[in-house]
Amino acid sequence: MHSFGWLANLAAVLSEHPWISWPTLLVVSVATVTDLLSRRIPNWLVFPYWLAGIVVSGVLFGWHGVLQSFEGAGVAIGIFGVFFLLGGMGAGDVKLCAAVGAWIGPWQTLLALIFTALAGGVIVIVWAAFGGFLSELFKGTGDLMAGWKRGAIRDPEATIENPKRRKIPYAPAIAVGTLFSFFVR
């Protein structure tokens, strides 16, 4: 009986603000599937969701809601945009986080990004360990950080565009981080 207690907690959390949580859960789930299958998060999914977040926030909370949507998106772009500029993250990941931010506002977005980073770290290490490229992962991370320390915005060898680099889908981590953010707000 207790083994399904987390499911009851999840349902309770998602029903607290269903106009925010259910669309968000749906979009991050679809993004996870598309990212796992194609290593892409499609614009046809992200942009309408992003716009709807601004509209729903405006309808529910007026201009303050619209401002909160833009601030939430801005937090995501400001933080994960840096990783994109360094070449360690795809634009689809940044756009998905910004769209989620438009729905959940700046403070919950910050929490979601923290949980996303933690989940992403675990997922990447497990993925690399099972894929047999754990040492390559640590070398690539070191190269990325060394490039940043040297002041290089984009090291051409340490980017996701490099066909020699492994591409790890990040939407699952975004989904986990976003979901966790609903539990702590």
| Strand element count | 0
Distance between the termini: 27 Å
Distinct helical segment count: 6
Q: Let me know the largest β-sheet.
A: none
Number of domains: 1
Mean of residue pLDDT values? 83
Order of helices and strands: HHHHHH
What is the radius of gyration?
A: 17 Å
**Helical/strand content category:** mainly alpha
Please tell me what the overall shape is.
elongated
- β-strand percent reads under 5%
Low-confidence stretches: none
- Helicity, as a percent range: over 70%
Describe what you observe in this structure.
The chain has 185 residues and is mainly alpha-helical. It has one domain. Helix content is 80%, strand content 0%. α2 (18-38) crosses α3 (43-86), α3 (43-86) crosses α4 (91-131) and α4 (91-131) crosses α5. The longest helix is centred in the middle third of the chain and has 44 residues, at 43-86. The chain is elongated, with a radius of gyration of 17 Å. It starts with a helix and ends with a helix. The model has no long low-confidence stretch (mean pLDDT 83).
In short:
The protein has 185 residues and is an all-alpha fold. The protein contains six helices and no strands.
